[in-house]
Amino acid sequence: MKKIFKNILSEEFRERVERIFIWIAIISFILHLIVIFLVNLHVIHLNSKLTSSPISAIYTPFSFILVYEVFLLVFYLPKSISSYIGKQYEIITLIVIRRIFKDIGYIQSSQNWFKLEHDLQFTYDLVTALILFFLIQQFYQRLAKHASKEIARSPEDKVRIDQFIKLKKTIATILIPTVIILAVYSFINWIVVSEQNHWDNITTFKNINNIFFEDFFILLIIIDVILLLFSFFYSDSFHKIIRNSGFIISTILIKLSFSMEGVINNALILGAVIFGFLILLIHNSYKSRTYTDH
Predict the structure, then answer these.
(1) Fewest C-beta in 10 Å: which of 126, 146, 155, 163?
(2) Which string of b and e fits 104-120 if b means at least 16 CB within 10 Å?
(3) What is the total count of domains within the chain?
């Protein structure tokens, strides 16, 4: 098991995976552009908004970047729960940005911009992406600032932390093949449903942004609960329990956003990240005060 940890969760493996996904993203972008070009020349016939504009081709490489972000989430799980949650926020932000590129095909140049559903959603997504980017920057900034103030731990604390890290490595190792199976299943299931509803079905096209990730966040909620429960063996600190519980609530809000549309979807996503950010701020303040009292 140690050898598996060392191979899968090593920096060398991460860099190798990163290079692979960069090349896949580049190749997929070029292939998507070629398909759009052939559609415009009427060489092939596809009734999809993803082939309506060259800008829509950005959707495809972004999908592979998202898959790589999922790998990074698993990679950072053993290192820090807060960094692991931060990766969840990065993923949902990239999903919003990817949706922007998808919805470009729906945009209508009109004086009634704020009365058209798709134009409004495009505006909501732009504002949401900007706010999310700022919140994530603040999240990591507070994380780094607090990490520099960590005090020395007792030998007993180090032993408990090492045991908890081993548990998280075990979960991460199991999570990698589980995520791969889930991704393959989600994609095949979507293909089957699309064939049944015909490719020009608007509902099918809307659901394309939820492929894999809706089920993936259910899996993350389960992982978050498992980590919370096992954390009781290694720490009974009130602020850590509340922090981990708050992060679970944040993940649940993200999961709920996939079942909503329009401004409610954006509100749930923003609410999830804002809630997690505030939980981190309160946790850091509580912990700093505890250190001061000692």
Answers:
(1) 155
(2) bbbeeeeeeeeeeeebe
(3) 1
pLDDT in tens, the chain (294 residues): 556 556 666 778 888 888 998 999 999 999 989 988 888 887 887 776 677 778 878 888 888 888 888 888 888 888 888 889 999 999 999 999 988 887 776 666 666 666 677 778 888 999 999 999 999 999 999 888 776 665 556 666 677 778 888 888 888 888 888 888 888 887 777 667 666 655 444 444 445 666 788 888 999 999 999 988 888 877 777 888 889 999 999 999 999 998 888 899 999 999 999 999 999 999 888 766 654 443
Contact status, residue 96 vs residue 269, Cβ threshold 8 Å: yes
Nearest Cα to Cα of residue 168 among 92, 226, 85, 111? 226
Q: How far apart are CA 66 and CA 62, in angstroms?
A: 6
**Residue 65 · residue 110 · CB < 8 Å:** no
Q: What is the domain range of residue 208?
A: 2-293
Asked whether the CA dihedral 42, 187, 8, 95 is positive or negative, the reply is: positive
Q: Is 42 left (phi over 0), alpha (psi -120 to 50) or beta?
A: left
Residue 179's alpha-carbon distances to 4, 88, 156, 218, in angstroms, are 17, 14, 34, 12
pTM above 0.70, yes or no: yes
Q: In which residue are the tokens 């004086």 written?
A: 111
**Runs of H (alpha helix) within the chain:** 2-8, 11-40, 59-76, 81-103, 117-147, 155-197, 202-207, 213-234, 238-257, 262-293
Tokens of 281: 């701020």
- Rounded Cα distance, 67 and 71, in Å: 7
CA-to-CA separations, 30 to 23, 52, 57, 59, 104, in angstroms, rounded: 11, 15, 8, 12, 18
